[in-house]
Amino acid sequence: MAELDAIDRAILKALQENGRMTNAELAETVGLSPSACSRRHDMLEKSGVISGYHARLSHKAIDYKMMVIVHISLSGQFAKTLTEFEAAVKRCPNVLVCYLMSGEYDYILRVAAKDLEDYERIHRDWLSALPHVVKINSSFALREIVERPNVGL
User: Fold this and answer.
1) Residues facing 14 on adjacent strands
2) What is the pTM of this model?
C-alpha cells in the first residue's frame, strides 16, 4: 500500500477507538461520503494495515489474575529448532504473546494464569514440554501499569 494520508490515519484512529462503529459513523467522523469511506476502509483491510478486529477481554474478569513474563533459551538458533519451537508454542492456549528476541534469551512470552497453581500446571504441561528448551525463567507481574491496545497515529 502507498503511504498513509491524513484521511487513512483518521480512519485508523477512529477504528482503534471504536472498532464497532458503522461505516456511516466512520464516514461522518473522518469527513468522507459513506461510499468513499467504505472504499478506503476496504483498501486498509486488503493491504493488511488493518489486520483484524476483536473484543478486548479483561483477564481478571474471566479469572486469569496472574500475568507471567517467561524468558526461554533454546539449545540453538538453527532454523529447524526455531520452527519447531514456534509451532509448538502457538498451540499453548495460555501464551498471549511470544517474541523472538535478540540478546540473552531466545524468546519472551506473556502467559496468563488463574493463579500460582495454574501457572505450575502450564509450566509443567506446556512450557517444559516445548521442544529444544534448555532454560525457562519466569517473572510474575505484580501490577499492570500500561497496556495500550492502540498505536499512536
Assistant:
1) none
2) 0.81
